[in-house]
């Protein structure tokens, strides 16, 4: 039986882990790369900062709703549980697998990128890129097989180091006075169709960079006091991430004008070259590696929790609920790791990553709607935390989600078609699994 004591996750995680996994699972190399791409799209200082702030406010509204959902149903797997409870088995099944896809792709990607950054520091290893990637994956699998506590400690240490690195970079930028940044003219074409297109494309990148903000919800079942810890960590973690993202952008613009940043593939490296000379690129590489190790650790822990939840409800193999002595869902971890190994060997992520933000918006939007539905459908469910200004904040989050989804469909129709194709293929599979459950 999947609910026997040996197959239950341990309540061994606390507030410090929650904040660490949120920061670790959110802040990656995206913030070091995307400022240049977004500058090229929008060409307006205030519009760029407003875009990052808009993304942050959207995520903060989400944190408000997720705080109630995750404390009301503190189960492994996050969003899947709320959507299934409110909207039925198929909605839960589809959103669970959507969520799994989004969270199972990053470990392979981050293993490859860490190996690439390692080769930048040690060029003599250039012919061992795939070997380094696979070795990293194996090392983290062994770490997490040893127990949840070890993974938690690594998460807290690496997330702390990551924040220190970013704060140091921001301070160095604002202390820089070598070149006076020219005044940035206001772009009068803000309401042109082309700029609206660019705005939604930039928001897709920004939402992708914020992805991971709800990481704590995947571990709700393992939290020693979810009613208090989850809301505290969601709010404090999201506010810290938003502050870092806006400060990093403002700091980069303090060093380089938009025109220069807009031509940069790795904005942080160009900024660091000005600040620290030719060694600047190495400094950014080290910061990137710290960021990636932290986010890799977080994403090694998240997909197994989703598979565990799906397995418990009969939407994956029964063995997916097996938990070892260290509290790790062992089969779910190994399945996810083999999937990562497969992706490392293929090495193609462009299409997969292009619709990650897309899927996230769909899953989050369904979760917000689930909050409204569960308030009506099951008013007596225990709610240790109630979202503030309900229902208006949740309704605004849903409206934002629909607007973002419409914008993404307009700016990236191919990803939308892929998502629709997954939904179409998934229904017959759902029917087969449902019959097997009976």
Q: How would you explain this protein's 3D organization?
A:
This protein has 438 residues and is an all-alpha fold. The chain contains 18 helices and no strands. It is globular, with a radius of gyration of 21 Å. The model is unreliable at 186-191 (pLDDT under 50). The chain has helices at 15-26, 30-42, 45-72, 79-87, 89-104, 106-121, 129-145, 148-175, 193-210, 226-255, 258-261, 267-276, 280-312, 330-346, 350-354, 356-377, 392-411, 413-437.
Element-by-element helix/strand order: HHHHHHHHHHHHHHHHHH
- Number of strand elements: 0
Distance between the termini: 15 Å
- Tell me which oligomeric state these chains represent: single chain
Average of the residue pLDDT scores? 87
Radius of gyration: 21 Å
Number of helices: 18
Residue share in helix:
over 70%
Low-confidence parts lasting 5 or more residues at pLDDT below 50? 186-191
Strand portion: under 5%
Structural category: mainly alpha
General form: globular
Strand count, sense and barrel status of the largest sheet are:
none
């Amino acid at each position: 039986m999947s609910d026997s004591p040996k197959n239950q996750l341990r309540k061994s995680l606390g507030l410090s882990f929650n904040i660490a996994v949120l920061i670790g699972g959110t802040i990656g190399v995206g913030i070091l790369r995307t400022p240049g791409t977004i500058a090229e799209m929008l060409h307006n200082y205030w519009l760029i900062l407003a875009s990052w702030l808009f993304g942050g406010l959207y995520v903060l509204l989400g944190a408000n709703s997720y705080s109630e959902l995750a404390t009301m149903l503190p189960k492994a797997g996050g969003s899947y549980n709320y959507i299934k409870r409110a909207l039925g088995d198929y909605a839960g099944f589809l959103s669970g697998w959507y969520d799994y896809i989004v969270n199972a792709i990053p470990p392979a990607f981050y293993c490859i990128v860490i190996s690439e950054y390692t080769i930048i520091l040690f060029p003599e290893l250039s012919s061992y890129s795939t070997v380094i990637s696979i070795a990293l994956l194996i090392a983290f699998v062994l770490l997490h097989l040893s127990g949840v506590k070890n993974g938690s400690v690594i998460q807290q240490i690496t997330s702390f180091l990551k924040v220190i690195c970013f704060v140091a970079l921001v301070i160095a930028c604002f202390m820089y006075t070598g070149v006076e940044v020219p005044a940035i003219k206001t772009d009068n074409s803000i309401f042109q169709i082309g700029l609206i297109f660019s705005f939604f494309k930039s928001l897709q990148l920004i939402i992708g960079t914020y992805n991971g903000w709800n990481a704590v919800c995947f571990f709700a079942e393992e939290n020693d006091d979810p009613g208090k810890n989850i809301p505290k960590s969601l709010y404090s973690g999201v506010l810290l991430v938003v502050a870092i993202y806006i400060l990093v952008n403002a700091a980069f613009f303090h060093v380089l004008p938009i025109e220069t940043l807009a031509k940069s593939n790795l904005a942080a490296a160009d900024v660091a070259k000005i600040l620290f000379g030719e060694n600047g690129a190495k400094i950014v590489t080290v910061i990137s590696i710290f960021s990636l190790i932290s986010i890799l650790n977080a994403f090694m822990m998240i997909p197994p929790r989703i598979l565990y939840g799906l397995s418990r409800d009969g939407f994956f193999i029964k063995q997916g609920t097996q938990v070892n002595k260290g509290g790790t869902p062992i089969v779910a971890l190994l399945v996810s790791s083999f999937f990562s190994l497969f992706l490392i060997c293929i090495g193609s992520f462009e299409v997969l990553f292009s619709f990650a933000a897309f899927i996230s918006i769909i899953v989050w939007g369904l979760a917000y709607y689930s909050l409204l539905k569960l308030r009506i459908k099951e008013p007596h469910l225990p709610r240790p935390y109630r979202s503030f200004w309900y229902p208006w904040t949740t309704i605004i989050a849903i409206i934002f989600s629909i607007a973002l989804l419409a914008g993404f469909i307009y700016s990236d129709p191919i990803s939308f078609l892929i998502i629709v194709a997954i939904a179409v293929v998934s229904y017959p599979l759902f029917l087969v699994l449902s019959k097997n459950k009976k």
